Amino acid sequence: MKIQCDACEAAAAEVVCCTEEAALCGGCDLRNHAGNTMATNHQRLPLSTALRPRCDTCQETLGWLFCLEDRVVLCRQCDISTHKSRPFGSGHHRLLLTNVKVGLHPKQSTTTIKLVN
Ligand SMILES: [Zn+2]
Ligand SMILES: [Zn+2]
Ligand SMILES: [Zn+2]
Ligand SMILES: [Zn+2]
């Protein structure tokens, strides 16, 4: 299963742009961000496991999502502890860095990335 590029909807996505909340392939990443001074400071996260950043909280486990409100990469454990311990944390929008679906709060609106079979 691959994550599809939101821009061209043809290639497999390689990065997630946190500002646009979009998954982009290498070509669209370049097109959207190179030469566009407004977009060059968009924070982008690689989607591949090899390049996936570590969790910002525990620094041990590979991150599996990015919280748009907290601007941090979290592993599953830290996602649960971060967002359960805060009364308003559960409404945070989170971008998945993996193709695993969020099953923790099925009733909440979580930003998900389109999956390609
Ligand atoms: Zn693309
Ligand atoms: Zn962007
Ligand atoms: Zn962690
Ligand atoms: Zn959060």
UniProtKB/TrEMBL annotation:
<feature type="domain" description="B box-type">
    <location>
        <begin position="55"/>
        <end position="97"/>
    </location>
</feature>
<protein>
    <recommendedName>
        <fullName>B box-type domain-containing protein</fullName>
    </recommendedName>
</protein>
<keyword id="KW-0862">Zinc</keyword>
<dbReference type="InterPro" id="IPR000315">
    <property type="entry name" value="Znf_B-box"/>
</dbReference>
<keyword id="KW-0479">Metal-binding</keyword>
<feature type="domain" description="B box-type">
    <location>
        <begin position="1"/>
        <end position="47"/>
    </location>
</feature>
<dbReference type="GO" id="GO:0006355">
    <property type="term" value="P:regulation of DNA-templated transcription"/>
</dbReference>
<dbReference type="GO" id="GO:0005634">
    <property type="term" value="C:nucleus"/>
</dbReference>
<dbReference type="GO" id="GO:0008270">
    <property type="term" value="F:zinc ion binding"/>
</dbReference>
<keyword id="KW-0863">Zinc-finger</keyword>
<dbReference type="Pfam" id="PF00643">
    <property type="entry name" value="zf-B_box"/>
</dbReference>
<dbReference type="InterPro" id="IPR051979">
    <property type="entry name" value="B-box_zinc_finger"/>
</dbReference>
<dbReference type="GO" id="GO:0009640">
    <property type="term" value="P:photomorphogenesis"/>
</dbReference>
